[in-house]
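Researcher: Next entry in the queue.
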Amino acid sequence: MKNSVIPAKAGIQTYLPIDPTVGPFGKFLLTKPLDSGFRRNDAYGKSLRIVSYLFLIIGLTTSLPAAAKPWAIDYTQSHLGFTGQQSGASFTGGFKHFEATIDFDPAKPESGKITADIDITSITAGDAERDAYLPQSNWFDTKKFPKAAFASTAIRAAAPNCFEASGTLTIKGLAKPVTLPFCLTSEGEHSRATGKLTLQRNDYQIGLGQWSSTDLVAKDVTVTVDIVAR
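Model: Structure for this entry, 230 residues:
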C-alpha cells in the first residue's frame, strides 16, 4: 500500500494510506498529531462518506418493488356463492360472511397477494332441508371445521383486464391447489372483480356416506366470486 504525504503546519507530516476498499476517501491512520486545518479536512471527508452512504441507501430502497395498495372491500355489494346439482336440478347457495385481504395492482399483478377466510357456518343453499344438512359431519362438518381459507401464491395476467390467481384452498382441513380466473371492471369510484372456478366436492370430503355417490348430488360445484372494492 502506498502512502501519500500531506503537508501540515510547522513542518509536521502525516500519512494517509490509500485503501480503495474503505470508500472513496480512504481510512485515516495518523502517525503524528494533526493541525486544525487537517482535522477540518478529515471532518469534511467523513461528511462526504455519510452523504454517499445515504444516497446508496436511498437508491436501494427506491429500487425495491412497491407494495400493492390494499383494496377497501364493500361487503354489502360483494358476494361469494356456489352452484350445484341435486337430482339433475341446479341450485345456488352462498356464504353470508367472509373476509378477504386483496393487495393487488393490475399494472403489477405478480406483486399481488389475495387471502380470504370464509365462515362456513354462514352457508345457505336456497332450501331449508339442504341448509339443515350442509353443516352436518357428512357435509361441511362446521362444528369441527367452521372456516375455510384461500391464500394466493402467484397472480399473473391472462388477458386484458383478466388475471389468474393460483393458490391453496383449504376446506375441512384439506388443502388443495386451485387457480381462480377473474376479470376487473371499473364502476365509477369502485372496481369489481368477478370470477369462478369448478371444484370437485369429493376432493374435500364434502358429501360422505350415501351422499358420496354422484347419482343424487353432482360432484362438480362451481364457486362464484363477486368482489366490489374502492
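Model: Residues 3-63 form one domain.
Researcher: Noted, moving on.
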